[in-house]
Amino acid sequence: xxxxxxxxxxxxxxxxxxxxxxxxxxxxxxxxxxxxxxxxxxxxxxxxxxxxxxxxxxxxxxxxxxxxxxxxxxxxxxxxxxxxxxxxxxxxxxxxxxxxxxxxxxxxxxxxxxxxxxxxxxxxxxxxxxxxxxxxxxxxxxxxxxxxxxxxxxxxxxxxxxxxxxxxxxxxxxxxxxxxxxxxxxxxxxxxxxxxxxxxxxxxxxxxxxxxxxxxxxxxxxxxxxxxxxxxxxxxxxxxxxxxxxxxxxxxxxxxxxxxxxxxxxxxxxxxxxxxxxxxxxxxxxxxxxxxxxxxxxxxxxxxxxxxxxxxxxxxxxxxxxxxxxxxxxxxxxxxxxxxxxxxxxxxxxxxx
Length: 353
Prior knowledge:
Largest sheet: 6 strands, mixed
CATH topology of the largest domain: D-Maltodextrin-Binding Protein, domain 2
Oligomer: single chain
Number of strands: 11
CATH superfamily of the largest domain: Bordetella uptake gene, domain 1
Number of helices: 15
């Protein structure tokens, strides 16, 4: 039964409305006791039935999932796995729309301009924590306009070095760079990986040359050819030279090990917690989506996180799978903000190198 049919079924008929008269006669606008009780029951039915009906009927049409990363990227791949799973659960298409660039603000702007209950946002915590530090006069307030729904994955971040150097550990790396100030070059993924390694160099009094790239595929080529010696980025964006033996990993930079590389220790396990950072990603909603609907979406995301096939695909794509809860996403954002506050006292985040 549609919402309109339910409302029609419980609406007042003309004959019932005719019973609404003064009671007792001639004394104001009070209604007959029976009609008063009937209207109270009608109001109760509206408050109980209408929200449930709206939630049960959602989605009514295609859901758009705006992703703040380019097609083919690790987070885009993860978003598509979740979109496919949600489409199967909801019985309606979930279409991914990539809007990359400008620390996530392009996608964020496109999402917030939609302002409907059939548009969701897939982005990393850095889009929430970093953008306000880098861009003056944002047209939106991340705390006011965005509502965290569910944590999805943490993209695995790695520290890789060229095999041209006799470096097999983080202490080896520190010694080599300290002995050759300004000789070696490094590159990184945007924002958080860049900040963590720039702060690491500053903390240890080390000097390396930062190389920036427009083409995200070029750094791993240059690492394999020895044009740069260190690459700090996602597992998928650094794996090619490692697979050919031209580079190797020193550490996973996430708080937990990678499911794809279970034997590779984390930076914290190796005694260097200053190299730890998390590539937390999740799904967000706008303020138009009700708390009940947000909970339903989160439950569906959490269910996908537990599906063996979805986990296999996500881990193979270089992700650690999270629990799919709003609290996990909120806690990750808060932790990242605290970390950025500390790092901002060490380096200039607008010009980290």
